[in-house]
Amino acid sequence: MFLTVPSVTGSQWVLWPFLTVTLFISILLLSWLPSDASTPATLSYVSRHHSFLSNHTPLTAHLVATRSQRRTSAIRGASLTTNQFVGTVVRVLDGDTIEVLHEGRGERVRLANIDCPEKSQAFGNRAKQFTSELAFGREVTVQIIGSDRNKRTIGEVRLLDGTSLNRELVHAGFAWWYRAYSHDQSLEDLEREAIAAKRGLWEDPHSIPPWEFRKSKKSPPAVGDVNN
Known about the structure:
Layout: H1 10-32, H2 40-49, H3 51-56, H4 58-81, E1 84-94, E2 97-102, E3 105-111, E4 114-115, H5 124-135, E5 139-147, E6 153-158, H6 165-171, E7 176-177, H7 185-197, H8 210-218
Parallel strand pairs: 3-6
Antiparallel strand pairs: 1-2, 1-5, 2-3, 4-7, 5-6
Helix pairs in contact: 1-4
């Protein structure tokens, strides 16, 4: 049995080398595309500067579009599962509470798993100053953990170099490990190191944890102290 070869005209034979070279260039183009090729700006660039290939090789346009859709879907999926945002610290209220610019407004963020002295406590202002020196006016990443009854965002705040502001406060002796709301044993280790080195508030062996300080402030005065 013989195979039947379709007849090809002379003009079609002339086009074969051109189409082969075009397909080869198309493959090179796909491998050259940067990792952000899914962005509108990149696709626009490809459209403008490689319109000849797009017009003459529909396969190229299809492959670029497919790759774009695949990458875009992956990015959207990541944004749904990554519960964080990046913004500039515009205000420091105290050692463990800051405001971060997010979507055009200052979002109040309470640092998770730690508790700094209240401003009216010893080392309260020192804790606030420490946080200001590390974060005020700088861009940070807030990893959202939840929110509290005061509608503050609870989260871990990381500086540009990846350092955790929460952990730095404990390590420097300007915050307690908030053991009532945290199971992070590594923070307990940092607290023990600060105690051993007598850093920050641990200079005073009788420092009162802020949760106890707040509780004492809420307690009603004794009968004999009402008029004093």
